[in-house]
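The passage that follows is intended for readers who have already worked through the single-chain material. We present the inputs for a multi-component assembly, then the predicted structure in tokenized form, and finally a short commentary. You are encouraged to pause after the input and sketch how you expect the pieces to fit together before reading on.
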Amino acid sequence: MDQVKIIEIKKSIFANNDQDAEKLRKELKVKGVYLLNLMSSPGSGKTTTLIQTINRLKDKIKIAVMEADIDSDVDAIKIKEATGIPSIQLHTGGMCHLDAEMTRQGLDNVPMEGVDLVILENVGNLVCPAEFDTGAVRNAMILSVPEGEDKPLKYPLMFSICDVVVINKMDVLPYFDFNLEKCKEYIHMRNPKAQVIPICAKTGEGVDAFAAWLLNQVQEWKKQ
Amino acid sequence: MDQVKIIEIKKSIFANNDQDAEKLRKELKVKGVYLLNLMSSPGSGKTTTLIQTINRLKDKIKIAVMEADIDSDVDAIKIKEATGIPSIQLHTGGMCHLDAEMTRQGLDNVPMEGVDLVILENVGNLVCPAEFDTGAVRNAMILSVPEGEDKPLKYPLMFSICDVVVINKMDVLPYFDFNLEKCKEYIHMRNPKAQVIPICAKTGEGVDAFAAWLLNQVQEWKKQ
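Having made your guess, compare it with the prediction:
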């Protein structure tokens, strides 16, 4: 099995995370690196979605991934093995989210030469990561069908800060009481501008649309 | 639709939560009230599992429920409508967990006359709730099949503090890559004594075993 670099993240000392996140965003803009912050509940399929998305984009733009988890390095290894792109594991040591300074600790260990896009897979958690700006250009989240359509009602902040909501595991829709139209309605209650993209990461269905959204994001941002 | 009492929980002022949790546990022991802290990821089926469990136990012991959520009151209403037992909603106002003092704020609003068991449905989150002792006699958690068998590897603390792990949504096992034996192995890596109970809350399959565990817990504890 492949080895990946594991970074033990230290607690931030900065008092003003919003300010620090703004600073990081500007530093990354100068370097031409687009940072995407990807969030979700545990087990919604972030890693599988990333593998499918990266394999559609890796010949068009240069990508690196940072996998944040409290423990284990299974996700970073999966990404590296399935896509061949640089992937590092961030261990938060029990911390429930990443802020801008913690994200910077990770970025310092990513081989940045020529990289266009860094994807941060945040800790699996619908609550705390929503409260901390990581310095990313955009926030994306994955909601999976088995979690239920009512999640935007229960976790309002998460849905209000995400520009795109990927609905994963559409293949199991027949086995769950999940109303996609109702879910879209709840998402748009929280963020009227959020794009909603239904996919099945296991089969790859719908992933083209998310990959296209992301590629367009990176290209438009580079022109600015 | 039924109305339920909604309590807006305030941030705790106590510095030492462990001490405060011990105090609350003793207070509840004097009153003869067993407190169960139920945790899980968002959408794992806590509320449905509770409804099934309560309907099996409500003629044997007197039960009340506190539903904690960042926002919304859908769960407390569901419990009240489906079981008829007292159910109140705790709003954490963005906070990602409950500690002992926050739990006490909820308990102060539960009609406690003759109650044997209070079940606290904690905020849907596998990270933060694991770090704060609520004053409960036991911690229980639900892991659902779609979340994947690897969760004990990624969220070690949660699995190490739970005495029982309910594996929910067993009906959809054929549609997911979920190895129950592997999952049990991972759970027991974190907590060798944890009981693992596979169920399907939708159909009620397996819930008898969880209800029996809980009834036995309450009865044995009352004798101590």
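Commentary: The two ends of chain A are 41 Å apart (CA to CA). The CA atoms of residues 64 and 118 of chain A lie 5 Å apart. How closely did your sketch match?
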